[in-house]
Every structure is written in structure tokens, then in C-alpha cells.
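Reopening this one. Same input as before:
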Amino acid sequence: MARADVAGPPSPGPVEQVGLALRAFRRERGWSQRALAESWGIPQSLVARAERHAEQLSLDACLALLRRAGVGLAVLGPDGMPVVRWEETDLLATDRSGRRFPAHRAVRPSTYGPRWWWFHDYFGGRSPGPAPRWTAEGFAIPPGTRYGRRPRPDAPDESPRWPG
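Same output, byte for byte:
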């Protein structure tokens, strides 16, 4: 008699799935961890760590191991299907430090550089370097804010004031 409240084995998370994929690859070939490591030219300890504690490896290392095992990694949408299309700005747009723009900002290409670059770097006497290719200029500043920030009180009984 089957019981409805008895669940099967827990569903493995992404970290466990990396190790399971590598184990399945080894099992298909009848290889030990040492044989896999020798075949791929990597330390056996790396194979052991990937199978046991993949969260200790970088994402790049996990992807490289999975790729060699013929397995991919996917980001799934709410419908369970892989997400294969991303906005161009999410893929390419970075500030001049190489960071992505905040997700809530509207980012667009900038042919000649944003205004802040012209005023602060180009005309401002700094060594300008190349003009940024992307900008998030043109957003509406929320009412009651200055430079996108709300005033803050210094003490609980004080009225709000702007940072100095």
C-alpha cells in the first residue's frame, strides 16, 4: 500500500547536480576519479572536490568540467524552459569600471559619450580617455530627492537635511 505523504529522494540542487553529472560521465566510461583526472590532465583532487563540494569551485571551473563531460548549464525561466534571449544592454553595457549598470536604470548606447563625461572628463581638465559607449542618463529624478537621494536626519528629532 503506497502512502501519499512519503516523498521520494530530495531533488538535488545545482551544486549537487555538477557532481552528479561528473559521476555519471565517469560511470558511463567505467573510470575512477584518477583515470578521469589523468585523461583530462587535471589534478584528481579537483575531480573529487567538484563531485563532493562544487560550491568551492569557481563557476568558470565548474562550466569547464561540465563542458568536457558533454553537459551544459542553463538558466531556466518561470516556465521551466531555458532562457536564451537577453537584452543587448544586459549583455554589453558596462560603465567605465567594467561594472553593469543598475537593473532599474534605462541604459542606451552613447555615440559621442554621455554629458557627464564631456563636462567632468573632457572639458574638466582630467585626462579623458575614450568616451563611454553606454549611458544611463535621461532618467527622471524622483520628487523630493536631490541627485537621486532622499534627505536624511542626523538625529531622531531633527528634520531631514541634505548630506554635506
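So the earlier flakiness isn't reproducible anymore. For the record, The chain has a mean pLDDT of 81.
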